[in-house]
UniProtKB/TrEMBL annotation:
Belongs to the flavoredoxin family. One of its GO terms (molecular function) is FMN binding. This is Flavin reductase. Pfam families: Flavin_Reduct. The keyword Coiled coil does not apply. Residues 19-177 form the Flavin reductase like domain. Keywords: Flavoprotein, FMN. SMART domains: Flavin_Reduct. Its cofactor is FMN. It comes from the Bacteria. InterPro entries: Flavin_Rdtase-like_dom, Split_barrel_FMN-bd.
């Protein structure tokens, strides 16, 4: 089947994308406005951008009428935010923060998360998250839509401090099993890591040798 995205609605293309690009890691982001109100929201359009310096990105869709979400407005104003990894222990409360709370209501307090101070930025962190990344804003890029009404704001941040629960780290590596990260699927579905396997990256010479052995 061939599908031309230009012949489909935005909603139809959205369904194809979220049903194809998966599982998607979830960034649970805290930000704050000039009055100190802390906002928290999950985003599954999230990935690593760079390792030198460490950088991550989140894609935040705009609301109807070309209205930016609270997260985007806060980050644009305060130039900082915190990304938390969503895991099996906190996913239910993270999902509740996606409720359309009024701008003057802190989702964090409403769902029972606890805030703790960050080290290098003013935006607080979620105590219940096993991995937290303090970020300073690098840039915000309006994407898609039209020049006057973009579809999405791509937010790129530099990680200036990592917080990792002590028992997760071994020789500088995070134990995936103990982290128990949750991925976003299509619709209202989520998924765990489940079965894992390892595939070594071969040199060209090793690949040739294996190919000869299989012939």
């Amino acid at each position: 089947m061939q599908i031309d995205p230009q012949q489909q609605s935005q909603k139809e293309n959205y369904k194809l994308l979220i049903g194809s690009v998966l599982p998607r890691p979830i960034a649970f982001v805290t930000s704050r406005n000039g009055n100190g109100v802390v906002n928290a929201a999950p985003f599954s359009f999230f990935t690593v951008v760079s390792t030198n310096p460490p950088m991550v990105s989140i894609s935040v869709g705009r609301k109807p009428g070309n209205v930016q979400k609270d997260t985007t407005r806060n980050i644009a104003e305060m130039k900082e935010f915190v990304v938390h990894v969503v895991d099996g222990e906190n996913v239910e409360r993270v999902n509740q923060t996606a409720i359309d709370f009024p701008p003057d209501v802190s989702e964090v307090e409403a769902v029972g998360f606890d805030l703790v101070p960050s080290v290098k930025i003013q935006t607080p962190r979620i105590a219940q998250a096993k991995v937290q990344m303090e970020c300073v804003l690098d840039r915000i890029l309006p994407m898609g839509g039209t020049p006057d009404a973009p579809n999405t704001d791509l937010i790129i941040g530099q990680v200036v401090m990592f917080h990792v629960r002590d028992d997760l780290l071994a020789e500088g590596r995070i134990d995936t099993r103990l982290l128990d990260p949750i991925g976003r699927l299509a619709g209202t579905s989520y998924g765990t890591i489940g079965q894992t396997f390892s595939l070594p990256r071969l040199s060209f010479e090793e690949w040739q040798q294996r190919k000869r052995e299989q012939e």
